[in-house]
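Re: your question from the hallway

Yes, I did run it. Sequences:
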Amino acid sequence: MTCKKIEELLPFYAENELGAEDRRRVETHLTGCSNCRRLLACFKQTEAGLARFPQLEVSPALMARLKAIPSSDKRKARSRTRVPFFLARPSLQPVLAGAFLLLVFASALVFTPAGGRLLKSLDRQFHLGYSQVEKLYAKAESLADSLNSKKEEVIVALKTASPLSRDDSE
Amino acid sequence: MLVNAFAPKVFNMAYQFTGSRTEAEDQSQEIFLKVFHNLPKYDSEKNFAAWLLTLAKNHLIDSYRRTRWERKNRDDFDENLPRQAQTADSPEDALLQREEQTVLWRGLNSLPSDIRLAIILKEIQGKKYEEVAEILALPKGTVKSRINRGKLQLARLLRERKEEGL
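Structure:
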């Protein structure tokens, strides 16, 4: 058996978990191999050494920090749930999303130079449109007046030209 | 009550895993934050200690993976523990034992994280294979083979240092 194979079996040998045949092979190898004997000794020292590491005391400061967690966690949970409970209803979510987008758009218009320029141009266009509408309205009014006067003239002309009025004169 | 019962276990597990008291304190606090946060999800039919230590194990390994590069050059590795881990009577034996403990302590911290945790739980904290398997959520055979591999690696390191005169 090679040293490599023996090394794989050593932990089981140290814990008495090998079958009789493997155990005998390992022991035969160990008798003639000082390297593997030293490894077995170090393996046992490793186990003993690991078991000797002490369990440390938790410092009072850490204990205080750990004990403070549940109450601070509850406070956080309360502050998290009080306001959003109403706002977090699924039915309100599209409305909130829309309002948020509107807010973002309005902020972009108000707080950026490009937005300011856009607002000014919109304002100018609005006033131009408004003055055109006013002019059209004034034209429409004058057209209505002239139509009224024409209407009266037509009525007079019709009256004078009608055969009924000729009969009357006869 | 929960903190009194489990803080020493969690803190020591974190300390033996990180090798640093300061880091172990920070990790313990983060672990307990997670524990309190996840308490509503705990299935009362399962072993509470195993559930809590599994959560601690997951946190330690995740945190180790996230900051692995920083740890390579860390300067807060605690070299004092080996001094507290000696039981020899004579000054010569005490010195030798301290040297061996230092080799093991450094060697433990250089093992892969999954093997290191298995060794910490079984060999340092004294848990049974079944308990370690439950905490690590692994078959008992896998746990056993990881622990054996880790101990063999430490034994080789110890043999090497002894040949160099420690």
